[in-house]
Amino acid sequence: MTNTERAGRRAKRTAVPDDVRSRTALRRVDYQDAFIVHTGAAGRGSAEDWIRGVFESAPAPLRSSLRLGWRVVGARLGPFPSRAHVVGWRIGENTADGIRLDVDWRIGLRANLVLRTRPSSVTLATFVEHGGRASRIVWSALLPVHVRTLRYLLTRAARVHDSGRPRRPRL
Q: Domain of life, per the record (predicted)?
């Protein structure tokens, strides 16, 4: 792959595929989004490798800001680093081609991140269930940052993956 091809590889918003939506653990989905990045033949790797690459290979200041921001608005995060968590989100389901991360928030919000790998692409989706007015208000404030951040992180993970550099810290 050329540098030009690598530079042009960006995550794009897409409709949530049915096989990705079917992996959510929420009773009700009040919000959903998905981003896809085309990886070419180099897109190999387990879903866990990819989700850890998305979050754990992010620049340390961004990773710290995400965890701090999530905690400030009430996310009940687990330990980091951890084999059972990814940046504090609990691993709920994990197969070779799909992984689901779960987190509950004190404000009544429940969220899943679902990543699905395919031979030439990776899709990362967010699912949110609101437990009340507070969660709707907080989520509406977080949404623009969420969209920009996930698009950036997935794009960055694909570029790091293509470069062959390590994608995540060792546990």
A: Bacteria
- In angstroms, the Cα distances linking 38 to 118, 122, 128, 136 are 9, 7, 25, 32
pTM reported for the whole predicted model: 0.90
Residue 139 has φ and ψ, to the nearest 5°, of -65, -40
Q: Is residue 123 part of a domain?
A: yes
Q: How confident is the model over 101-117, as pLDDT tens digits? A: 999 999 999 999 999 99
Query: Does residue 11 lie within any of the structural domains?
Result: no
Report the number of distinct structural domains present in the chain: 1
Contact criterion met (CB below 8 Å) for 124 and 113: yes
Q: What is the domain extent for residue 35? A: 17-163
Please list, in sequence order, all residues whose beta carbon lies within 8 angstroms of the beta carbon of residue 94, skipping any fewer than 6 positions away: 47, 48, 100
